[in-house]
Amino acid sequence: MQAEKRAYCGGCGFLVTQCVCEWVPRLSTHLNIVILQDPKEAKHAKNTVSLLRLALTSVECISTANVDVLKKVLLQKNPAKWRLVFPCDTAIAVESIGAEEVSEIEGLIFIDATWRKAKKLYFTEPLLRIFGAVSFSQPPVGQYKIRKSPNDASLSTLEACAYSIEQVTGDNMQPLREFMLTAQEWQWRKQPLSHRHDG
């Protein structure tokens, strides 16, 4: 009985009792996405990157613990055609990128970690700072409510990716957000309401 409870779905990788296969949207974008993920985030049950990877096949996830692989991946990216989504002092608003620059962007890099660890990675990995950075001046309200956020303007990695893609390409990523919400409600349906973080 215990083994059955811990059985995993071969499609989505979640526990069979938390399978989300029936809701995975079929989305595409010409942008390539690289997620630099902290190992603890990869193990976190409430992390949204696993959902993101199901919906977008262009997502590549690299562990920040594997420094050699991380450096190799970054060195393979052309700084003229890739942008780092990170709110550093030199970041420009993604909403204000001109049409000519947008046409040259082929990929986006995200850091999936706590804010403290994301900042540490940015300032200790020189390769990250060779990419032009973009941030959000008018982000949508985050809808990921089952995990604490540092402030009201915080977005999950999935939401940040969806918004960035929309701003750069014009592709509609609302189905991605809806998938996140549906999966969130289904997978945490037995969680007491008091454990959620609706503000």
Automatic annotation (TrEMBL):
Keywords, A to Z? S-adenosyl-L-methionine, Transferase, tRNA processing
Q: Which SMART domains match?
A: DTW (SM01144)
* Boundaries of every DTW domain copy: 5-192
What Gene Ontology molecular function terms does this protein carry? tRNA-uridine aminocarboxypropyltransferase activity
Question: What is a biological process (GO) this protein takes part in?
Answer: tRNA processing
EC number(s) recorded for this UniProt protein? 2.5.1.25
State the superkingdom: Bacteria
Q: Name one Pfam family in it.
A: DTW
Q: Quote the PANTHER family the UniProt record gives.
A: TRNA-URIDINE AMINOCARBOXYPROPYLTRANSFERASE 2 (PTHR21392)
| Family stated for the protein in its record | Belongs to the TDD superfamily. DTWD2 family.
Can you name this protein?
A: tRNA-uridine aminocarboxypropyltransferase
Q: Which organism is it from?
A: Marinomonas primoryensis
